[in-house]
Amino acid sequence: MMNRRTWLQTAAAAAGAATLPQSWAQNLSGGGQLITRAIPTTGERLPIIGLGSSATFAQVARSEDHDALKAVLAKMTELGGKLFDTAPSYGASEEVAGKIAQELGINKKLFWATKLNVAPRGGKAEVEAARKQLEASFKRIDRPVIDLIQVHNMGDIATQLPILREAKQQGRIRYLGITTTFENQYAELIETMRTQQVDFIGTNYAIDDLFAEKTILPLAKERGIAVLVYAPFGRARLWARVKGQQLPEWAKEFDATTWAQFFLKFVASHPTVTCITPATSRVANMVDNIGGGIGRLPDEAMRKRMIEFISKLPNA
To answer: CA nearest 292: which of 276, 279, 311?
Structure first.
């Protein structure tokens, strides 16, 4: 399957590598500002594009050379991004990002979103393990208050969500939530949204992955829950689908100049989406992604046109 890096290398070879950086930054010219969305429970606003730390970010974090990640985090904040999404299960991502943020002097500028998920062990042992993991996150991020911690992949909600509620009551975390990108956990996610008070959810949503539109996003709107979107490129799936395809001319109508911006602007155009967190370890990709949150967004008619266009492309 073609990933984004391979797609960009192919595009660069076809178009001339020197021309691509200019197109990536087009939407940033003229002082363009990132679109922001309000967190429903407080009204605090977040830039629509953030940064995730799974996939290639996690792979680079395991290496000894973290210069690329430092450059990506610096560029995100320089261009107006704020939310950084990580998890203890993303290898060294949480710890490495914490150190980089300290080195760059941006730790307090970031909106830190991490996760909690200790495999069920039963009773006291699980509670102790969850608390230990929570304390490790505070140490790695090196902040007395973490902005958001979510129960990762619906991990034993009955045990771990109360631990986060306690931390929020103590003023140690500002927001709490739940996440999943697994189809077999959607029913539990939806039930928890209906029955528990949470500030955020995180789930997958992309132009060819529309399940969230049917129930999850409408319910989030109804319940006043902020939404983080993961996998807006269908992991690597969408890059394979657009291999050899030119961006349609009509993408200019919503200020998309690259495929990444095409995909991100589709997701951002859903009004219930609070922030999108594509992971990357490359500055060029970070710039490209930020462009997906600047300028016009597609309206409902255009969204349908975009879905139809992608649906007619062959699957990889």
So the answer is: 276
Cβ burial, residue 175 (10 Å; 0-12/13-18/19+): buried
**For residue 46, which phi and psi values (nearest 5 degrees)?**
-120, 140
Closest CA to 258 of 8, 3, 1: 8
- Residue 25, SS3 per DSSP: coil
Q: What is the pTM of this model?
A: 0.90
Query: DSSP per residue over 51-92, as a string?
Result: EE-SHHHHHHHTSS--HHHHHHHHHHHHTT--EEE--TTSTT
59 C-beta neighbours (distance < 10 Å), count: 14
CA distances from 74 to 87, 162, 260 (A): 20, 35, 20
| One-letter amino acid of 47 | P
- Sign of the CA dihedral 97, 138, 89, 260? negative
In terms of Cβ atoms closer than 10 Å to its own Cβ (0-12, 13-18, 19+), residue 62 is exposed
Residues 184, 190: Cα–Cα separation, whole Å: 11
pLDDT in tens, 114-152: 999 987 666 788 899 999 999 999 999 999 999 999 999
Supply the angle between the helices 186-195 and 216-223 in degrees, to the nearest 10: 10
